[in-house]
Amino acid sequence: MTRTLIDISNDLLELEIDLDHLEGLPEEQAAELHEWFSELADERREERDRKLDNYCALITDLEARADVRKSEARRLAQRAQVDENKAKSLKTMLQWFFDAHTLRTVETDRYRITLARNGGKAPLLVDEVPIENLPAAFVKTTVEVNREAIREALESGEVLEFARLGERAQSIRIK
């Protein structure tokens, strides 16, 4: 039986829905994809190629949708930052007003506005001093693996007991 592109597209949409239901379960997603591709291997080459083409179209559509959503998220984050900056500026002016008029608390119909000292630890003010001039008890040293030096040593042929170069992974490229 020849299946239409709509049938094949519906299969792809069902696959996407199934994968959405298995989000966060990579083993189950892999099993679902394995089953889908196993069924695909039994079908005729032409239909298989159409399915693969639609499968790639679904991938590129999802990638494009993700890009649009990321772009929109950046745009909204910028708008949120503008709003936060405006609110901060208005609060600074409100604090100036309270200071200038020696106000501590004012109640309006909707708000109670109070000029209060911040809680928590007092701010720490450290003078600009070269770090080597500070006593050791007041210096924090961070030690970490020099991954680039290890890579260079391995790539130059040196054998290290604690590290080795791994195999590069494979990936699908759709053009």
Explain how this protein is built.
The protein is mainly alpha-helical and 175 residues long. It has a domain at 5-79. It has helices at 5-21, 26-41, 45-100, 147-155; strands at residues 105-107, 112-114. A two-stranded antiparallel ribbon has the order 1-2. A hairpin with a 4-residue loop joins strand 1 and strand 2 (112-114). The longest helix is centred in the middle third of the chain and has 56 residues, at 45-100. The protein is flat, with a radius of gyration of 30 Å. The relative contact order is 0.05. The mean pLDDT is 89.
In short:
This protein has 175 residues and is mainly alpha-helical. The chain contains 4 helices and 2 strands; from the N terminus they run H-H-H-E-E-H.
For the structure shown, list the relevant keywords.
175 residues; mainly alpha; flat
